[in-house]
Specification:
Strand content: under 5%
Helix content: over 70%
Number of helices: 2
Largest sheet: none
Amino acid sequence: MWILAQTPEISPVGLTGWTAFGLTGSILCWYFFVRTPATDKMMEKKDEMLLRLVERQDAKDAEKDATILKLIDNQDKKSDAMMSAFNLRSREEREAADARSKQEREANSANIQLVIEHCREETRLALMRHKDDVNEGADRGRREVHS
């Protein structure tokens, strides 16, 4: 009490200043010790939620990517099978065409040989007739000369 008796009187203006200083201090204490940690916790929770959402989305995207890769792989296998079948069919058709062409060439060769033999025979016969005609004409000419 003795200390209170020795302190000078506080004026209403000074009291207002001290009150404002005290309120400001309490607001700052509340802000730094209550609100900021609560906001930090809230932000951490939001970050964790966002990370979980991103991880879930990444997992979904990975599943989609795997599905797409499987589809592409299946399409590649189908394309490879179709190309193999096409190549096999093309080779078979080409071999069949080559075989037909070879048969036609052999048949044509045989026909040409027949035609050549026929032409030789006709030429031989024509030459024989011509020789006969020449010989006959010569014989006739000799007979006429002798007669």
